[in-house]
Prior knowledge:
Layout: E1 2-6, H1 18-27, E2 31-38, E3 44-46, E4 51-53, E5 59-61, H2 67-73, H3 80-87, E6 93-97, H4 104-110, E7 117-121, H5 124-133, E8 139-143, H6 147-157, E9 161-165, H7 171-179, E10 183-187, H8 192-199, E11 205-208
Parallel strand pairs: 1-2, 1-11, 2-6, 6-7, 7-8, 8-9, 9-10, 10-11
Antiparallel strand pairs: 2-3, 4-5
Amino acid sequence: MKIIGHRGARGLAPENTLPSFKKALDIGVDQIEFDVRVTHDHVPILYHNATIVDGAGDKFLISNCRYEDLKAHKPDLAKLEEALETVKGAVPLYIEVKSDVNIGPIVEILKGYRHAYALSSFSQRTLRELQTSLPKIPKIVIDNWSGVRARLRAKQIGTRTIAMNQTWLWSGFIRAMKRSGYELYAYTVNNPAKARRWAKYGLAGVITDYPDRFKN
């Protein structure tokens, strides 16, 4: 079972930052998951929400702002290029491209990355665009709760890898997915005992805030 660091190691360092990546690498994760958005001046950055809120409580819509302006309000804001340079192929990357972003700048950077990575999204349109632009790169369908919908989306994209919210998973479903030839990941799992139990039924990996708990 793969141990995948969620946004680096978000339970141990600020999420989607270079220190979080370094913490995950120090722990020895099998893979690092993180989120990518694109600024108004076409810079791919690591951030989960569409809006950045600074220490004063001011809000900045990422798609409307330049990278340098956002950086002034969030000093640890990382570029996709910086994340790739930090990892340097030490582990495969699990890159979640957020919905409704301009994938062009992301694709241009990833075309030059020669190490292992996979592309994921909640958005089927985004996955289709990524499949067209980077057809040889593995894709991961992310779905919050519907196994039926997730399998349909996976078939449309031509992948057998699915990530689902752990809240809706149970042993019978995990076993059925495994028998059907799917590689199933669960997010966000911070309980090693639950993960070990599900691994017996065929769970392929967990995305966790605390990868250190799984390495003891």
